[in-house]
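Supplementary Note 3. Input sequence used for the single-chain structure prediction.
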Amino acid sequence: MIKTMLIAPYSGMAESVKQIKLPDDFHVDIEVANLEDALQLANSVEDQGYDLIISRGGTAAMIQEKVSIPVIHIDISGYDMLRVFTLIQDTHHRVALVGFENICRGAKTLSSILEYEIEMFTISHRNQVRSQLEELKRLGYNIVIGDVVTVEEAQKLGIRGILITSGKEAILDAFDEGRRQYQLLKRAHARVSRYHRILQSIPPNIFLVNKDCEIEFSNLSSEYDEITNEIIEYKQINQLVLKVLKEKKPYWESIETQKYNIDMQIFPIKQDDSLIGIYVQALKRIENISSVVMISRVIHIPIIGDSPYSETVRETVNQFAKANESILISGEQATGKMTIAKAIHFTKFGQDNPMLVVDCSSINQECIQNLVEKVQMIQQGTIIFRKIDHLPLQEQEQLCNLVQNTPNSFQIISLSEQNLESMLQDQLFNSDLYHLISALSFYTKPLRERKEDIAAFISYFLSEFHTHSGNETLGIRKTSIDMLKEFEWNGNLGELKSRVKELSIKATGYYINEDHIHELSVRKDKQKKNEFMNRDNLISIKGTLEEIEQQIIRKVYEEENRNQTKTAKRLGINRTTLWRKLNNT
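The predicted structure, written as C-alpha cells, is reproduced below.
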C-alpha cells in the first residue's frame, strides 16, 4: 500500500477525489489546505509515515521545497480549461487569465480554437500576481481566471475570480505519476533545532513559535494547555505569524474556536527574527459572547447583477465608503444587506482593519461590554449591528451611549428588516439611537422586484458550487431562467441559492433544463396548496394559553412576510402590543 496524503488547495478538489474510484494500491487521506497552511500540514506528514504527497500548483511547489518525500503535481488539463471557459461563456464583462507559462500556453490554444475573447497574462512567480491584477483592474477587467493564489488576490482587490479546477482526468494522472515515483526518494525530515535564548524577562501568558508555528517556549500555566492547542490549530494562525515576521509589527487578533473566543497580540521578537511571540490577553467562553464576532480579514464579495438597481447599489457602496456618517441598510430578509455592508467596509478599509458584527437579537450587558473592549483594542474598523430592529428598548439606550462614545475612526452600519421610522412612530425604537445610526440610509429591494438579475445570480452560484463542492453543473438554459423568473421568491436570495443548489445536484448533465424547473414548480405548487389546506392544523393546542397565542402570532407574522403593520392589522391589535408580544419569548 502506498500511504498518500492528498493536499487539495480548494475544497472542490477534495470532493472530486472522494467521488473517484482510486487505484487499489493507494491508501489516501485527504486534507484541504493552501500555500502556508498546506506547508504546515506537510511538515507533519513525514512523521506519520506517509510515502508521498499529491497536490497542485504553487501549493505543491512550496511543499516540495520543504519535505524529503516525493511530491506529485496535479497538472491542469485541457478538459479543466474547457470547463472553466464554459462557466464564463455568456458573460458580458472583460475576462483575463493570469497564470504560469504552462497554463497560458494551453489556454491560449484552446481559446483560439473556440474563439473565446479571453486575454492571457503570463507570470513567472506568484509574487507577480498582485501587481498584474492591479494593472488589470486599472484597465477595466471584471473577471480573472487563475489558480487559488490568483483568485484570492483578486478578491482582495475587488475583482471577481474564477478558479481553474482540476477534473478527474488530471487527478488520476497524478496517481499514475505517484506510482512511478514511489520509493525514488528516501525519507528525510530536517528538524528545527530548539532555541535556548530570550527566556528571561518574558511576561506571563506568552508563548513563542517559529515560522512553522511550532512552539519553542511557553510560560503559560497548565490550565492554558488546551487554549494553546486551540490557537496553534487555528487555520489562520500560520498566515498571521508569517505576516508579523514580514512586516515586523504587532497585530491584534480575536479568534473563535469550538470552545473559546481568544483575544491575543501577535508580535515580533526583536532579538531573534525567526521567532514570534503570542500574548494571550483575554479569554472568554464562546457561548457567553456569541453575539459579538470579529472578522479580521474581510474578503471581497461582488455586487451581482446587471440591472439599473445593481448599478445603483455599486454606486452607493462607493459613495458611502467615502463618507464618515453612520449608515442604515433596511430591507427584507436575505436581500443582500450584509453583502452591501461588507462591500462598504472593503472599499473603505480593504483588509487592513477588522469588522465587528453584533447580533442585536441576542445581545445583553456582557455582550455590550465585550464590544467596548474590542473597540478599544482594534481602534479602527467597522461595527455592523445586525437585526437592530430586534433590539429591546432597554438595550437600545445602552447602545445609544456606546455609539456616542465610539471613535470617529469606526464606520457604523446598522441592518434592519423592519421600517425603523414606523417603529419610531409607534415608540418601539429609541429616537436618539435612530438619529445616531441613520445619517445615511439605503433600502434593499426584494428579489421579486429585481428579477432581471436572477440569471447573474444563478451564474455566480453555479461558479461558487463548482469551486467549493466540485459540482459538475456549469450552466442553465435561457428558457429555464425564464421559468424561474415566474416564481414569487418570497425567501429572496437565500431561497434562490438553495433552489439553484438543489437543481444543480439533480441535473444529470452539465446544464439545468426545463424538466428540472418543471419538477421544482410542481413541488412548490403542491407544497403551497398543502400549506393553505392545512394552515389551521399547523397550530398546536398543547401548552398554556400564552404559548398557543405565541404560535398564532408567529404564524401570522411569517405569513405576512414579517411585516409588523400588516400582522397587527390582521390580528386586530396595535403595533406596540404586537412588538411586545413578539419579544416576550
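The CA atoms of residues 302 and 374 lie 28 Å apart. The first strand starts at residue 2 and ends at 8.
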